[in-house]
Amino acid sequence: MKIRLIEPKAPGLNVFDRARLPRLGLPLLGRLLIEHGHDVRIYVETLAPVDWDDIAEADLVGFSSTTATTPRAYDMAGKVRDLGIPTVIGGSHVTFLPGEATQHCDFVARGEGQVTLLELVDALEETSGGDARWRKIKGLSYRDEAGHVIHNPDRPPSTQEEFEALPPPALGLIVGHERMTNVPIMTQWGCPYACDFCSVIHMFGRRVRARAIEDVLTELETYRDRGAVFFYDDNFVVNKARTRALLRGMIERGLTPDWSAQMRAEAVYKDKRGRELDHELLGLMRDSGCRMVYCGFESVNPATLAAYNKHQDVQDIRDSIRAFHQYGIRVHGMFALGADTDDKETFQRTADFALENGIDTVQFLMLTPCPGTPFYERMVEQGRLLTEDLSLYDGHHCVTQPALMSPYELQMGIYRAMASFYSVRHTLRLILSNVTRNLPFLLGLLWRERKLRLQLPRVALLSLLPSRRPDVLDILRGALSRESWKRLRGMFVVPVLRVYGRNHIRQWARQARERAYVEHLRRLVGRRRQAVGAS
Ligand code: B12
Ligand code: SF4
Predict the structure, then answer these.
(1) Which structural domains are found in the chain, ordered by start?
(2) Over the stretch 116-132, which tens digit does the pLDDT of each residue have?
(3) CB under 6 Å to ligand 2: residues?
């Protein structure tokens, strides 16, 4: 069968735009389909546009979506269905709202899709049997011939053995895969925690299933010299003995690309209660190439951390930043603002905390109700969803009625906190402190690196022209020895990321869609005031 799979792009700008990365669901499903003899191609819109001539010749088209990308997936599915081609959709949104998805796609795969999709493809190849063909497929939702929505029983998550038997995702099936900014590798699924707003545990469960270390090392070997690795695990450090074994394996085999991963603050502790640092793990992280950790700090408001069921306190956040930095690992702090316990002071307090504690980069995201989570259920029950436009559920728009402020105040509070963290003043201060700390090295550079001395006038000139700044980096890289370039890059990478962050915030605020939504929220306040005045 000719099967085409599509991951639609995000509707607007988001903090991760710079990262051109696919989710691994489609490449995994693609590998399994290929192993079963099918012809598969994957389109990830952030990497390459969809070739509609190719789609028009498919026998089945599958979509993978998150909440914010679901409207685009539905639009595309409509187009495909008009061509008379069957469609199937899966992912973290439609799993929890399959009824909605059956209005747009013929089939919905709830939860993990690896077996469901293979069974569906087999059933589609049977030419007779009508609806009975789908009835036996667990985890599938669809409309029967009479138009009734049918939800087959759930498919249980894969067992550890089934999970270990899965092949690595076939990234090569993605059109434009060579444009990926990092090599994505997932070593385990699920997370033992139960944060109130997180859909991962409802999708992949709280029982973590981990791949065999040997398999992960083999996959790393496949991508040797292909650039930095991003481990996709929701929580990279769950079982410390396993993490240590993986990192040791990487070091022993010389598989030490620059890598980054998501983890909790407490990863730095040997013993959380005694707050003793795990120097062994931190040392292994550094020696195996860890350059940046993405930490779900979520909040510096203790009441909010408790409301999120985060099992973490503010001291853990402070300790982890200090510990990672001690080992030369940069920290990207991920925060979710707008809980019922957050007030108008929370925003600046969070930005100040991030700056005072030297977090390298941050994302202050809107607490967003993702279907499947307790937070979403509460917002629906309490009638607090402000819009049905799912494309706005991307962590950048206020889509719920907050408790202690207006939606407009929440929207602007987050915007201002981001602007404060990424301000020119703070970036310049960072550059100055880096330059001061490294002055002997910088002066020594001019002395040691002859090529650099020759290129300096050109570098100075091009630095004045914003459009030519990428050339400056190339010139510097070419003019410096490997060691010097590495150290110089280490000094300036965070300021460069901060400049990117600042530009991004400004760009976001200039988009017509964003401006219109913020204006809508502002008017909402006015309308509420009028309504209160009239009553
Ligand atoms: C890597 C990752 C990213 C990367 C890449 C993003 C991308 N291309 O979308 C980066 C860092 C850029 C990112 C950014 C964001 N992310 Co993200 N991300 C992830 C993460 C950690 C792993 C994704 C992954 O590969 N999973 C593993 C694969 C195997 O799972 P899968 O793709 O879901 O596929 C399985 C099933 O879903 C199903 N399936 C999926 N598709 C299909 C299709 C068919 C046809 C079938 C049959 C089955 C099927 O079968 C697959 C195999 O079992 C997930 C969490 C998670 N564990 O999934 C969050 C997650 C997807 N992200 C999430 C969010 C919210 C975001 C952001 C909006 C946050 C933000 N504002 O910055 C942005 C949005 C970016 C965007 N482009 O839209 C949420 C989405 C929740 C939701 N309901 O929308 C998740 C689930 C995390 C969470 N906390 O809940 N993210
Ligand atoms: S937010 Fe992080 S720690 Fe909490 S349940 Fe989700 S993946 Fe686990």
Answers:
(1) 2-151 (3.40.50.280), 182-366 (3.20.20.70), 428-509 (no CATH)
(2) 999 999 999 998 888 88
(3) 191, 193-195, 198, 200-201, 234-235, 264, 296
